[in-house]
Design brief:
Number of helices: 17
Shape: elongated
Largest sheet: 9 strands, mixed
Number of strands: 9
Order of helices and strands: HHEHEEHHEHEEHEHEHEHHHHHHHH
Helix content: 55-70%
Strand content: 15-25%
Distance between the termini: 30 Å
Length: 418
């Protein structure tokens, strides 16, 4: 009965707060602050979720989870390495590759390019690069022709189209006495552009693909390869699994995994998530202080009413509950408005970013700096629940002191000062 009375009187006090315009303004400010903090926090977390999704599906779908690369000589027993890999629980697939690194000429100078030789028949087991090019481009990587598939960004910067030719300049290592090597005149390799892939990030500018057999021929590897690409079931287990496979081999090899080449991106995302969570939680906390101010002023404004209720026999706990309800209603309203606004923004964040870019003629994310050139978003409902629950809990805590202060009102003094 006392709880229902607290709810009813608290609701009446909440609706009657507009009799004092200043209190009404502070109450509105607290509700708006909570709503803004909740909305922005949900939106930012969704953006961070989107970056994680793109990192896993787009970047780590193309970049190998791990690699074993020959040091002083090519890897010739790669089929045996593939067999050994399948004996290790957690490794799901392997594929051989060759790698050339060189320079291509562009307007104003040269640009470095990493050319990967792959076999489409097995590459699809460790990479989803085929999802970012058409079937004709993918099939062009079969056989031993001099086909090359370039990234969309690189092809655009060089004004290249399918059917055009491109030259890659690579170092020419000459073997001298005492097994030392010197660099002679650069070698020039001519390729025909057979296709374009579109990942939408830095890889578009720095990576190209050629047939595995043709790459091995250029490097003089015969039946050998530069290394073996590894795909694992859990990307966070990649370092351990790659070490387990590498240590079981007799040949001297470099061991590499995605945490060495792309791990900084994941850590940056987690750092930004933690910082934004802290900053926006403080924004919500500041808004909750407005609830304290609102209730303190409301208690002073309603002292005579509180005194009458206490004189009529109302328990102090019930009086305290009245003001807890009044303050909690501010928090509930702010959480509902902010939650709804945040969900709408999160679901349409990518489209909103595109609209801003088109309207202002700017690019929010540059492929030269980030691994993608668009703003991703992925809404996780558990994040929404946690944010709303946190905001409501903070607003509820902020009501305790003013409510306790109201319950300590002395009826005689309050009525005497009326």
């Amino acid at each position: 009965m006392n709880q229902m009375l607290s709810l009813w009187v608290g609701w009446r006090f909440y609706r009657a707060r507009q009799s004092n315009r200043f209190i009404s303004f502070i109450s509105f400010a607290s509700t708006a602050g909570i709503a803004l903090g909740v909305a922005v926090l949900i939106t930012v977390l969704s953006a961070m979720n989107g970056f994680e999704r793109e990192l896993e599906q787009r970047l780590l779908g193309v970049v190998p989870h791990g690699e074993l690369t020959g040091v002083n000589e090519p890897i010739r027993n790669w089929p045996q390495i593939a067999k050994d890999a399948h004996l290790i629980e957690g490794i799901t697939a392997t594929a051989p590759f060759v790698r050339l690194q060189g320079l291509i000429q562009k307007p104003g100078g040269f640009q470095g390019l990493t050319v990967i030789g792959i076999d489409p028949a097995v590459e699809s087991k460790v990479s989803n690069i085929a999802d970012f090019m058409n079937d004709k481009s993918w099939q062009a990587l079969s056989g031993d022709s001099n086909n090359i598939v370039l990234g969309k960004g690189l092809a655009k910067s060089l004004s290249l189209e399918v059917g055009d030719y491109i030259s890659l300049y690579t170092p020419n290592f000459a073997v001298k006495q005492l097994n030392t090597r010197s660099i002679g005149a650069a070698k020039s390799h001519r390729f025909v552009v057979a296709g374009i892939f579109d990942i939408g990030g830095e890889l578009d500018m720095t990576t190209a693909y050629i047939p595995l057999a043709y790459g091995a021929k250029l490097l003089g590897l015969d039946d050998g390869v530069s290394g073996v690409r590894i795909k694992v079931d859990d990307v966070f287990e990649a370092p351990r699994l790659i070490r387990s496979l590498g240590y079981s081999q007799q040949q001297y090899m470099y061991l590499s995994d995605w945490t060495r080449t792309q791990g900084h991106l994941y850590h940056d995302i987690q750092l930004v998530r933690a910082v934004m969570y802290l900053v926006l939680a403080l924004v919500i906390a500041v808004a909750c202080f407005n609830i304290v101010s609102t209730l303190v002023m409301a208690v002073r404004d309603k002292q005579s009413e509180i005194a009458i209720l206490l004189t009529m026999g109302m328990a102090k706990s019930t009086v305290m509950g009245i003001f807890i309800v009044q303050g909690a209603l501010n928090g509930v309203l702010g959480c509902l408005i902010g939650g709804g606004l945040g969900v709408m923004l999160a679901l349409n964040l990518s489209q909103i970013a595109i609209l801003i870019e088109q309207s202002l003629g700017i690019q929010l994310l540059s492929a030269d700096v980030y691994f993608i050139d668009f703003l991703p978003s992925q809404l996780h409902w558990p994040d929404v629940i946690v944010v709303i629950s946190l905001a409501f809990l903070m607003s509820l805590i902020s009501t305790l002191y003013p409510a306790w202060k109201a319950s300590r009102t002395l009826p005689a003094r309050a009525l005497a000062g009326r």
